[in-house]
């Protein structure tokens, strides 16, 4: 029996793993998926985008895996037909790898022959830091369908109200946009000098901050939320900032990052860089135990490094790689090492960007990055040791996005930054 173990984490990897197992000829009764959530695996990115749209919104079963990668939608019936057991609404609270057993919150024990750890990440909560008033009603974190449902109800209840977004990363940018589409008065607050600092340069961020401002989103940088006030009903009414400002709020959404969920396996598996250390086949140091997605620290062949990557694209592909490795091991065969090109993307308002590779070294900004321009299209290259190692593009066509992905993968040499800036997208199209 192969068990795929989730906790609060992703509901992406198990679905893609199940599809790959099916391709590999899994027999009825050989695979079980254990999940804390009450629904079959789904594409989590929808929760911060179409799920919250005021019109034409997405709902399950519309975004069950594997529609996010253009594949078949795997409904609960699909798992039943394949003889794959879906054990839902079941939180695993103890893992004992030496005895190959898992224990649920209800006291059930599950044993396995092979385990895939797909526990993903959990959100960082302000209550973890004892922020005053952070337990007030209508302060939201977005991770699961239930979280999104609660936020949808609050948006309806507080129609035309004030929303404060704490954090300027993925969640901050996507939620600010979608709440603005719901006609809320939106303010973003983050401590960094610009949004998405882990990926964006100052030049890239300036476009998005300007664009959001033009859409009516207010941005307050360089400060943090240090407390929340609430009314007699216990609902949040304001956000107190470190710089002394107090913002009125009917809804607060917090997006200040996540942590890989590896506590169940602490002291039982080798760890590195905050995750569970694996090889290029997602095998851990424990026989027949694999780790995929957010929790895996794996060899990134392209850069000769080991890293942990938090993104749905890697979640899907790492799950498939682990399944192929499991089957190959059973058959005494070998498979190719995981050779991943880091990929990130986001969509908000009418915007859509993609990034491939690594954001290290010098940068070149090209194209029209005027947030007021009706024909904006711009990008950035990252250059290290005379080679392009990363590429970003806003509002690219499918062909243009493929071109920048190819650049990041092949890492072509660059003669001069000035020429690269002048050529812009043309450089990518010639590679």
Portion of residues within helices? 10-25%
Report mean pLDDT, rounded to a whole number.
95
Overall 3D shape: globular
List the strand order in the largest sheet. 3-2-1-7-20
Number of helices: 9
Structural class, by secondary structure, is alpha/beta
Radius of gyration: 22 Å
Strand fraction equals 25-35%
Number of strands: 27
CA(first)-CA(last) distance? 47 Å
Poorly predicted ranges (pLDDT <50, ≥5 residues)? none
Largest sheet: 5 strands, parallel
Description:
It is a single chain. The protein is α/β, with parallel strands linked by helices. 24% of the residues lie in helices and 28% in strands. The chain contains nine helices and 27 strands. The protein has helices at residues 13-23, 76-82, 145-157, 170-181, 202-214, 312-331, 398-410, 417-423, 425-430, and strands at residues 2-5, 31-34, 85-87, 92-96, 101-104, 109-111, 114-117, 121-123, 139-140, 162-166, 185-190, 218-221, 225-230, 236-241, 246-248, 251-254, 258-260, 271-272, 275-277, 289-291, 296-300, 305-308, 343-348, 351-357, 362-368, 377-384, 387-394. The chain has a five-stranded parallel beta sheet. It has a five-stranded parallel beta sheet with strand order 9-16-10-11-12, covered by helices on one side. Strands 23-24-27-26-25 form a five-stranded antiparallel beta sheet. A hairpin with a 4-residue loop joins strand 14 and strand 15. Helix 1 (13-23) runs parallel beside helix 6 (312-331). The longest helix is centred in the last third of the chain and has 20 residues, at 312-331. The mean pLDDT is 95.
